[in-house]
Specification:
mainly beta
């Protein structure tokens, strides 16, 4: 009998509020195709936007005042890497900024 292989790993990062977060992620491997998928339990109740239909953009779509990825909120609204990976919490090169996924 074929079975999906699964492995549980833990993502660790510092949340925008400053607390260290550990989020379990299950990696499943299809025994026939070898393809993998990830199950993020931290988002188990979330529903992907646009899965039923593609709605029109909201009227405030051009407003970047609340965008967590726009300066100057990037530093206060995005998670940080653990200090052993990046002492400053993020890796910056030119105009690019690397930070961990809040929902890995």
């Amino acid at each position: 009998m074929l079975r999906l292989e699964k492995q549980v790993v833990t993502a660790r990062f510092i949340s925008p509020s400053g607390e260290t977060v550990q989020a379990p992620i299950e990696i499943r491997t299809n025994p026939i195709t070898g393809r993998t998928s990830r199950v993020a339990f931290s988002r188990i109740g979330d529903r992907e936007a646009g899965t039923d239909f593609l709605p029109a953009p909201p009227p405030f779509a051009g407003d970047t005042s609340q965008c967590p990825f726009c300066h100057p909120r990037l530093q206060s609204k995005t998670p940080r890497l653990l200090p052993e990976l990046a002492p400053d919490g993020r890796l910056v090169r030119g105009g690019s900024v690397l930070f961990p996924n809040l929902f890995p």
